[in-house]
């Protein structure tokens, strides 16, 4: 990837906002369908191999009630051939956290599961790796390593097969 392109995106966004980088010799007809003012949601449409797709990049809020509302609003952007990537800031299942973490009740988790079900999406990492444990976030809290998956790649069910 051309590092100057990445630097240009960072310059334009500053320290705030999600981005999507496309490899232009593979992807065409790229349009920005929506971008929120908080830098948490970017919706782009594009063509690949003659098919139209939508990709949504998210950085969900940290606060549970805000995250719940954010996730509920994603469904309106999910059309045919939609992929969602990003930091959802919620643990989807107990297998997505290490033994040093607590699997807390989180109402936004239910909204994410509902979104996945309603839009026929799958967590492609979980499908490929089944029961394997792998983590996207690691931090030391009170001398203990805490790990969890909060970044997901959700694909339409038929694309993941």
Keywords:
alpha+beta, 161 residues, globular, 6-stranded mixed β-sheet
Describe this structure in words.
The mean pLDDT is 78. Strand 1 and strand 2 form a beta hairpin. Helix 2 packs parallel to helix 3. The protein is of the alpha+beta class and 161 residues long. The chain is built from four helices and eight strands; from the N terminus they run H-E-E-E-H-E-H-E-H-E-E-E. The strands form two sheets. Strands 1-2-3-4-8-5 form a six-stranded mixed β-sheet. The chain has a two-stranded antiparallel ribbon with strand order 6-7.
Quick take:
This protein is an alpha+beta fold and 161 residues long. It has four helices and eight strands; from the N terminus they run αβββαβαβαβββ.
Shape: globular
Radius of gyration: 16 Å
- What is the share of helical residues? 10-25%
Q: What is the string of SSEs from the N terminus onward? A: HEEEHEHEHEEE
Largest sheet: 6 strands, mixed
The average pLDDT is 78
InterPro entries: Endo/exonu/phosph_ase_sf
Topology, element by element:
Layout: H1 3-13, E1 28-35, E2 41-48, E3 51-59, H2 64-74, E4 82-87, H3 107-118, E5 121-123, H4 124-129, E6 137-141, E7 144-148, E8 151-156
Parallel strand pairs: 3-4
Antiparallel strand pairs: 1-2, 2-3, 4-8, 5-8, 6-7
């Amino acid at each position: 990837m051309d590092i100057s392109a990445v630097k240009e995106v960072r310059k334009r966004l500053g320290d705030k906002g999600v981005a999507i980088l496309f490899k232009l010799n593979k992807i065409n007809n790229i349009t920005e369908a929506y971008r929120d003012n908080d830098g948490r949601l970017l919706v782009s449409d594009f063509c690949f191999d003659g098919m139209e797709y939508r990709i949504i990049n998210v950085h969900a809020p940290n606060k549970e009630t805000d995250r719940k509302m954010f996730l509920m609003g994603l469904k309106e952007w999910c059309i045919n051939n939609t992929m969602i990537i990003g930091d959802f800031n919620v643990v989807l299942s107990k297998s997505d956290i290490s033994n040093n973490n607590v699997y807390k009740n989180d109402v936004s988790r239910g909204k994410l599961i509902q979104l996945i079900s309603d839009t026929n999406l799958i967590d492609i990492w979980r499908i490929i790796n089944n029961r394997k444990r792998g983590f996207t976030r690691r931090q030391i809290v009170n001398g203990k390593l805490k790990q969890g998956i909060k970044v997901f790649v959700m694909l339409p069910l038929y694309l993941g097969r």
